[in-house]
Amino acid sequence: MAETVRRIEVSGPQPYTVEVGSGLLTRAQIAQSQIALIHPEDLPARFVTRVQATLSPVVTVVVPARDDCKTMQVMAGVLSHLAAANLPRDGAVVGLGGGAATDLAGFVAASYLRGVAFYTMPTTLLGMVDAAVGGKTGVNLPEGKNLVGAFWPPRAVWCDTDTLETLSPEVFREGAAEAYKHGLISDPTLLRRVLDPEFRPGGALLASTLADAIAVKAAVVSRDLTEQGERAHLNFGHTLAHALEAVTHHRLPHGEAVGYGMHYAARLSRVMGGEDLTGHTLAFLRWQRPTPLPDLDFQAVNTYMVRDKKADSLGVRFVLLRDLAQPYLARVPEALLRQEFEGWQADARGLPETPRAQEGT
Amino acid sequence: MAETVRRIEVSGPQPYTVEVGSGLLTRAQIAQSQIALIHPEDLPARFVTRVQATLSPVVTVVVPARDDCKTMQVMAGVLSHLAAANLPRDGAVVGLGGGAATDLAGFVAASYLRGVAFYTMPTTLLGMVDAAVGGKTGVNLPEGKNLVGAFWPPRAVWCDTDTLETLSPEVFREGAAEAYKHGLISDPTLLRRVLDPEFRPGGALLASTLADAIAVKAAVVSRDLTEQGERAHLNFGHTLAHALEAVTHHRLPHGEAVGYGMHYAARLSRVMGGEDLTGHTLAFLRWQRPTPLPDLDFQAVNTYMVRDKKADSLGVRFVLLRDLAQPYLARVPEALLRQEFEGWQADARGLPETPRAQEGT
Question: Residues in domain 3-dehydroquinate synthase N-terminal (chains A, B) (predicted)?
Fold first, then answer.
């Protein structure tokens, strides 16, 4: 308990604090007296017990694991639980779990009685670095991911690093993709630290690296909550990533798709005249060791890229890098998208499936 | 077409204009090029055709009539229709119909892609005076009405008075309750005008009275969008009204419940030391001729009043009147709630079931 807790302030219309450290599940404090706790069924029971002992929720709602909880049907059921428990408008909703459960819990908080206080306790690396900060909440539709939701920032976020110790090494490396992305678009010191052997559950660099990766997102969303401009930079690597998730019917985990997508975006950045950052993105892929991809057809993948939620009536804009920490938005000619797709696929095929290779460049 | 269109400005973080007049369905203009139109199945086809010719929606979604459309299940289906039609984030949702359909359409607009532009075309008196202005959107749960939703103001509201000509006299008089309420809490000139024979579909006082009744709500929500304070005054008469709707399983229409509820609130106001305004509320009831009530047990009704959505952890506060246009919030001792309930029930039993009686006081 003597360990340092790192604090990141998120400013904007409704400021809040993200705390990162050990033992936070038993130290969280909430102003509201009546609390609904929402967590996925596969969360280790000891985490649920700790939070229940700390917050004494009036109702605990268990939801399906992973993205299975992100449906309108599950949401309707959760809302009914809250209403049956008479959660008042000055009550609060707490989401405990991975990004899927906290996305659902946030949309429930945004919608119940037209909005109650929301708090989040992410228990995965992706949940901490990406989902917990920024106020995006929502569920999926049969027609696509994250098509429904609200901007509903939490009042506080607690990232208890103890919860990461249950993650397998594969899931931990998967989740590191968003932290590495924050290194590329904003804080190059993260690139070396994310690949350091001490960036692991229980490792000496875990909390500090995590806190700095979260701080990148916090700074961006502080300046642009509703994605009018700069916030789009956080989508670096995500246009291809979402398409890869769709063509593989979500068998490719999000963090691995982002790993692949960052390398594609680095290749596009280079061909559009930017510095060559592909050494970094390849180094990350060698470290992450993602699931190998099947042979993919550019046309099939491009159909999904065009349909991406970030597209407006004029089509897709990619987030590219002029250099490290210099992101910008650009439309890329289709001939170049196709050419770099072929090169990217060749690079992906050449990845070793053996343990961590040495860093490139 | 030479008729005057009345305009009411709603200020606040996102200002918008309410237009009231004849022929507006064919004159509405919307900045967004891709539009989803949502309307109830029982809306006269000629209104739908007019709006389709005016706005050329990319998708029209028909929903069940009245409150049957205000469910999470219907909402999920509407959202899927929008996604299947690829409505983009710079598209718009237009709600055409009564308050239920526009409440649903607004919540769909608030949630689809985390929020797209919303416009509303109310076609009932209640929809125009109450639901269309103020940004409250949402659906019901099996556990209660309006328990889920968002504050999502429209970009514009068109109240085409031609649509009111399809309403039966009973439904028109029902809807007049909210206009009369606005007279009591803010603009006493409305009291005489709402009861005037020219306040009827096609009548000489229709548009002007409607516009002034809407202006009362517009002024209140301009100052208090999310119901932190003054907006609660709009709930005058609604605490008993919601309870009456619940105990009658919603067989009592909302406007009639509000008519009864205003008289109860006027009795409470008098016993709590205010001016005697019961002559006004009785005059309205004699004009409205609501469905007679069964014998009601105070305890049963009070249980619902205590559970009202407006209650916080401390219990129910009633909106009372010191005098015309002088609303305030107060907790009322249960002994007085019971005593005035008995008196109110006696008054309600004494209402004539014959055509309009002369005004009291």
Answer: 61-173
Kindly list the residues from chain A whose CB atom is less than 8 angstroms away from the CB atom of residue B113: 147-148, 309
Interface contacts (A, B; CB < 8 Å): 96
CATH 3.40.50.1970 for domain A6-166, yes or no, is: yes
User: Rounded distance, CA B22 to CA A35, Å?
Assistant: 49
As annotated, the binding site of A includes 99-103, 123-124, 136, 145, 163-166, 178, 238, 254
| DSSP secondary structure code for residue A296 in this structure | -
HEC string of B215-284 equals HHHHHHHHHCCCCCCHHHHHHCCHHHHHHHHHHCCCCCCHHHHHHHHHHHHHHHHHHCCCCCCHHHHHHH
Q: Which amino acid is at B227?
A: E
ipTM score of complex: 0.89
Which residue in B293, B287, B273 sits closest to B344, CA to CA?
A: B293
Report the candidate in A246, A232, A235 with the shortest Cα–Cα distance to residue A304.
A246
Joined together, the tokens standing for residue B200 give 């009827």
Q: What are B23-81's pLDDT values in tens digits?
A: 999 999 999 999 999 999 999 999 999 999 999 999 999 999 999 999 999 999 999 99
Which pLDDT tens digit goes with each residue over A175-192?
A: 999 999 999 999 999 999
User: Which one is the CATH code of B232-361: 3.40.50.300, 2.160.10.10, 1.20.1090.10, 2.40.50.90?
Assistant: 1.20.1090.10
Of the candidates A256, A250, A26, the residue with the CA atom closest to the CA atom of residue A144: A250
